[in-house]
Write a structure and sequence with these properties.
Elements (H helix, E strand, L loop, with lengths): L2 H40 L2 H32 L3 H34 L8 H25 L2 H31 L4 H33 L35
Amino acid sequence: MLEGPHIASVFDRDLETIQARIMKMGGLVEAAIMSAANALEARDEEMADEVREGDVAIDALEEQINDESARLIALRAPTAVDLRVILSVMKIAGNLERIGDLSKNMAKRTTVLLQMHSIDGAASALRRMAREVELMLKDALDAYIQRDAALAEDVIARDRDVDQMYNALFREFLTFMMEDPRNITACMHLHFIAKNIERMGDHVTGIAEQVVFLVTGEMPEELRPKADRTSVDPKFSPTPGDDADDDEAGD
């Protein structure tokens, strides 16, 4: 008669272990975002290299989370509610891994930009944009731990601010390139860093959406159109393979 509670306690313990890994992974990703942005602003190649090297630990945690989640599903036959938790955890881990990749991509482009003259104000503006994404991620993870759907919805709404920051930087970089063709190469790299940060915001939004799903059982309704308008701007159309979410995926 004690088998049921015993199995339940083992399941809860295993799930707690997985969720602890999610929070550890989230902390590493938060640090990677700001270290990449700070490396760009400080023109610090050593810091940029540390971000690139640190991505290995983020990838390893995602693999652990996925393996342990699959094992938990196979061995514990979770109820519908518990299964929802496990699937949400796996999707959150996937979003965190992509944010880590995008931080690594920022660091890669920083090492290239160090060989060029700096564009006034660009690095500090990108750092502010990255800081906003990092704060969104912190709140999304807090919402997950607290099962706070309202906080998660707030994070989703704040992605519009990140999109607007990206759009403003996009226009600024275009201006720099038109004013002086010597700025084109540097501004192209800076543009893709901005796009990386904007994509980070999308992945943070994905995490927040999983929190809403976890709490309510339903994905949040699409309340707004995507505020990134540059994809339809005829002045600038990235070449095939330049999608920032796949930017320099290999190391």
